[in-house]
Amino acid sequence: MTVMAFTLRTDAELDAALAELAEAQHLSKQEVVRKAVLEMHQRAQHKQRVAGASAAARERWGDVLDRLGSV
Q1: Percentages (nearest 5) of helix, strand, coil residues in the chain
Q2: pLDDT for the residue 1
Q3: What is d(CA 10, CA 33) in angstroms, rounded to the nearest whole number?
Q4: Which of 22, 46, 49, 65 has the most C-beta neighbours closer than 10 Å?
């Protein structure tokens, strides 16, 4: 794993929220930010996979579903 430096500018509200989360979870602020970004990324990838699977299912079964819906 390569470690890279990164500067995060925060306002008072974000810094307070970050400090509260870090303390509550016994993590550093850096680790809270890291986990939040990775979780957000994972959710975005999941949404893309679900959208792709849904589109494929509509493509394959759309006519059948339309016929079932009109019964």
Answers
A1: 75, 0, 25
A2: 80
A3: 12
A4: 22
Predicted pLDDT at 20: 97
CA–CA distance, 59 with 52 (Å, rounded to integer): 11
Structure tokens at 24: 């509550």
Q: What is the pLDDT of residues 7-41, one digit of tens each?
A: 999 999 999 999 999 999 999 999 999 999 999 99
- How far is 30 from 8, CA to CA, in rounded Å? 10
25: CB partners within 8 A, 6+ apart: 32
Q: What angle do CA 39, 29, 19 make, to 5 degrees?
A: 110
Length of the chain: 71
Query: Which bin fits 2, alpha (ψ -120 to 50), beta or left (φ > 0)?
Result: beta
CA angle 68–69–71, rounded 5-degree value? 70
